[in-house]
Write a structure and sequence with these properties.
The protein is about 20% helix and about 25% strand. It is α/β, with parallel strands linked by helices. It has one domain: Metallo-beta-lactamase, Chain A. The radius of gyration is 17 Å and the shape is globular. The protein starts with a strand and ends in a 16-residue tail after the last strand.
């Protein structure tokens, strides 16, 4: 069992914004989400990426401004429904959606998966749903993207057993009870942010989501400062999470990040710039 990753959109940003010492040229950053089949849990999605609910139609003023600033360029062939169709599935076949955090570029397509069980930080979801609009807006969170009744079908990540992850990564939550997929807390980017370690693969894979925006930024001297630090929920925690991800990679683990512009061997072919 190994995951594949699709690209829902590109967002252009100057390299210097996310990589210390980078240039001013704009780079097309990917907005990945993942997919895998678990022998018991069934078809599992990791986040949903960006979708049309961010870029068009009736939206709050805050979401329209967010879209105008970031200008995500949707990859229609990389949207979940299109990718699932290519693989012989429909959205109704998705049994589980793992939500690593609640930023718009990770939850914009949740409404398509009304039958799926959600695995997420339940306490964090409750906080998001109760928070004032302005507080959520500051963190790039829009509750209009979260389907009604989401909390009632959400299973708490932190209810799963803690077991040791490979290659010195520390402990992770055993999401399916077989040690194959571990939720690894990686705080800093967003409150409740976690990655996923596929520990049963011959070379363990850590999907570190938004711990950094590209692989080169894992190295201390290339980690971004201002303005990237402005969007971090906890800059000091982000430094420690980045250190752990780099240590895992240096111990022969494989690391994939959501927004890395580099093509990964785990990427599906659709969604090239």
């Amino acid at each position: 069992m190994k995951p594949v990753f699709a690209n829902s959109a590109f967002v252009s940003a100057p390299e210097r914004f996310y990589l210390r010492g980078g240039g001013w040229r704009p780079v097309a950053l990917r907005v990945r989400y993942g997919l895998f089949e678990h022998p018991i849990a069934g078809l599992v999605l990791i986040d949903t990426g960006y979708g049309p609910r961010v870029t068009e139609g009736k939206r709050s003023l805050g979401l329209r401004l967010y879209n105008a600033i970031l200008r995500p360029d949707l990859v229609m062939g990389g949207q979940p429904a299109a990718v699932l169709q290519r693989l012989g599935f429909t959205p109704d076949d998705v049994s589980v959606v793992i939500v690593t955090h609640f930023h718009a570029d990770h939850v914009a397509g949740l409404d398509a998966f009304a039958n799926a069980r959600i695995i997420a930080k339940r306490e964090m979801l409750g906080r998001v749903l109760r928070a004032p609009v302005r507080a959520n807006l500051r963190h790039g969170i829009f509750t209009e993207l979260l389907p009604a009744g989401l909390l009632s079908r959400t299973v708490d990540v932190d209810g799963s057993a803690l077991i040791e992850a490979p290659l010195g990564l520390g402990k992770g939550r055993d999401l399916f009870g077989d040690g194959s997929v571990l939720a690894i807390d990686l705080p800093g980017h967003a409150a409740g942010h976690f990655g996923l370690c596929f520990s049963a693969m011959p070379r363990p894979l850590l999907y570190a989501v938004d711990a950094q925006w590209c692989g080169d930024a894992l190295v201390p001297e290339r980690r971004p400062g201002f303005p990237a630090s402005l969007v971090a929920d906890d800059p000091l925690a982000l430094v420690e999470s980045t250190r752990r991800v780099l240590a895992f990679q240096e111990a022969s683990g494989e690391v994939l990040l959501c927004h890395d512009p580099a093509v990964s061997p785990h990427d599906l072919g659709e969604g090239m710039p």
